[in-house]
Automatic annotation (TrEMBL):
The chain crosses the membrane at residues 6-22, 34-53, 84-109, 121-140, 199-220, 240-261, 273-293, 305-322, 331-350. Keywords: Membrane, Transmembrane, Transmembrane helix. It comes from Caenorhabditis brenneri (Nematode worm). One of its GO terms (molecular function) is carbohydrate transmembrane transporter activity. Signal peptide: none annotated. This is Transmembrane protein 144. It comes from the Eukaryota. The keyword Electron transport does not apply. PANTHER family: TRANSMEMBRANE PROTEIN 144, TRANSMEMBRANE PROTEIN 144 HOMOLOG.
Length: 356
């Protein structure tokens, strides 16, 4: 029963993680700091609902550190996606996320108890498949259609900081409007698909995955060490609100620093409010399911599954909706990578209870 609940939670988490950036991808988020702040509000609201569901289970400051770790990694997510595309970005940072989370649970790092699966062989074999799949994913080239416009809001700050070419392009665009008063315009952007931009984004994605992989460490440490943390809950879901509050607090601090850096003129378009919150709610549901999966399975099982399967969901969005991935070579690479990843996830799932 516990395995069934855990695997179901893994499936829910994978679908929502793979879809979380869909609400904001069609909008111009630029550096993504404001979008992340909006996400953190949606995350906090969802966390409060879970807090009520658990009967106001208490507040645990240490769990906030895991939220802060996730937030720092996620601060780079939108710029990475702009350069690598939705699917490739998620698949790359989830590979390092997978390795970090798996190693922490398997070998008992950072004060956690080592979690040895029933079949270490299947677990290792599944991990190898997942890593190979991730390396193949990195070779898939995402090419966003050049005709697809980003939705953006024009502000006085934008107008003042436009160069002559941007103003000329803006005037040309506005001349096509009936009244020239449309709030959504086409904004020229630099080439984010160049080799150097992609290399920087690739390295940033790997680093972001390390921060993602550390997100559960404080909670699992508290659960695994009852002699140190006496009276603390043994179910992960009781720590959700504290974890999410850490995300909101860290995101708010980042936004304040960003606003100071921008001299109180942050890029904060109003049309990102609801999409940003929607993305945060999707993530919060996925992360809550992740907590449930960890409780019924173990980190050595859940991390390889939940860190890699969302990439397959994101790949479906990229192919069938955004059409970012095109060409025979890319499809062949993607098919091989997804096959390897799914096979690895299945093997890791079997390693929980099946000896081999």
């Amino acid at each position: 029963m516990a395995v069934g609940v855990g695997l179901t939670a893994c499936a829910v988490s994978s679908v929502f993680f793979g879809s979380m950036f869909v609400p904001i991808k069609s909008y111009d988020s630029r550096d993504g700091i404001f979008a992340q702040w909006m996400m953190s509000i949606g995350i906090l609201l969802t966390g409060f609902v879970v807090f009520v569901y658990t009967g106001f289970s208490g507040f645990y400051p240490l769990a906030m550190l895991g939220g802060a770790s996730w937030c720092i990694g996620n601060a780079t997510a939108i710029p990475i996606i702009q350069r690598l595309g939705l699917a490739v970005s998620i698949l790359i940072w989830n590979t390092s996320n997978c390795l970090t989370g798996w190693a922490g649970g398997r070998f008992g790092l950072f004060g956690m108890n080592a979690q040895v699966p029933a079949s270490p062989f299947l677990n290792y074999l599944g991990l190898v498949f997942v890593i190979i799949g991730g390396s193949i994913f990195a070779q898939v080239r995402s090419e966003p259609p050049p005709t697809k416009a980003k939705k953006t809001s024009r502000t006085s700050f934008d107008m003042e900081n436009m160069n002559s070419e941007e103003k000329k392009a803006l005037n040309t665009t506005e001349s096509l409007d009936d009244g020239g008063l449309d709030t959504e315009v086409l904004r020229p952007v630099k080439d984010l698909n160049s080799g150097s931009q992609r290399l920087i984004a690739f390295i940033a994605a790997l680093i972001a995955g390390l921060f993602y992989g550390m997100t559960f460490v404080p909670v699992i440490r508290m659960i695994d060490n009852p002699e140190i943390y006496k009276g603390y809950p043994v179910d992960g879901i009781s720590y959700v609100f504290s974890h999410y509050f850490g995300i909101f607090l860290t995101s708010t601090i980042l936004f304040v620093i960003y606003s100071i850096f921008r001299r109180n003129q942050p890029y904060a378009p109003p049309n990102l409010f609801l999409p940003g919150m929607a993305a945060g709610i999707l993530w919060a549901i996925a992360q809550t399911s992740f907590f449930v999966a960890n409780q019924h399975l173990s980190q050595t099982v859940t991390f390889p599954i939940i860190s890699q399967m969302p990439g397959c969901i994101a790949a479906a969005w990229s192919i069938f909706y955004y059409r970012e991935i095109r060409g025979k070579r890319n499809f062949m690479l993607l098919g091989a990578a997804m096959s390897m990843t799914i096979t690895g996830a299945v093997l890791v799932g079997f390693s929980k209870d099946f000896k081999f």
